[in-house]
Amino acid sequence: MSTGVDSSNSSVSVVKANQFSSSCCLSGMVHEGTPTGTIEAINDLQTYVAVPKDGSKAKSIVFLVDIFGWEFKNVRLLADNYAKAGFYCYIPDVHQGGSLPIEFLQSVEPSLKTRKQQTAIEKTKANANAGTALPPWLLKHREAVSRPLIENFVAAMRKIPGTGKVGAIGFCWGGRYAILRAHSVVDAAYVCHPSLVAIPGGLRTITKPFSLAVGTEDSLLDQKSVGQIQDIIAKKTDVPHELRI
What we know:
Helix content is 40%, strand content 17%. The protein has 9 helices and 8 strands. It has helices at residues 10-20, 73-84, 102-108, 112-117, 120-140, 143-159, 173-181, 201-204, 223-234; strands spanning 38-42, 45-50, 59-64, 88-92, 165-171, 188-192, 210-213, 241-244. An 8-stranded mixed β-sheet has the order 1-2-4-3-5-6-7-8. Helix 1 (10-20) packs across helix 5 (120-140). The chain starts with 9 loop residues before the first helix and ends with a strand.
């Protein structure tokens, strides 16, 4: 089960690294296409900005990325699509230049199809490599470091002239922080395949509308965890919400 414990020591980081080592954040592919947004400095963070056709900031989004960071083409293409749907989208570099390189995705954890064809030895080697690389990264980007960066960025967004509602979108590593923002900081949140989530505490204190998407075969959220999430969300009758499995 994922935990919400702060990675303040190496032993906790090792546990989290082992959870990450078979997650979907470490598998997949680079999508085709060319991002069309621009780069701006906002609250001292380099930020990818995707602007809707009408230029309106009435519906603004902060995109909280996974471990591969703000420069990963896939997330920028997603931001461009959100802009086409009318949202003013920001992807801040909350890793401050320290995101894991995309080569890590390709070499340590290839596509799901390829992984299914791997031998037990090959899978063990890949997991060991991930377990070696992730603990120092998770320690460096622990909640005590990352949470203030994100909260300050959202506060700076709200001060940008023309900004209306502010939403948060988070995937995997960023999903946890989107949930935390839904406690009070943003107006709504969408979370996909969150990692390192505190169950039940991280969900019980949500006060803003939110949508949560989890997989049926998710290494970071087992079926017991998903069942707990369903029970918690079912009781939140005072907050608009949805759970997609």
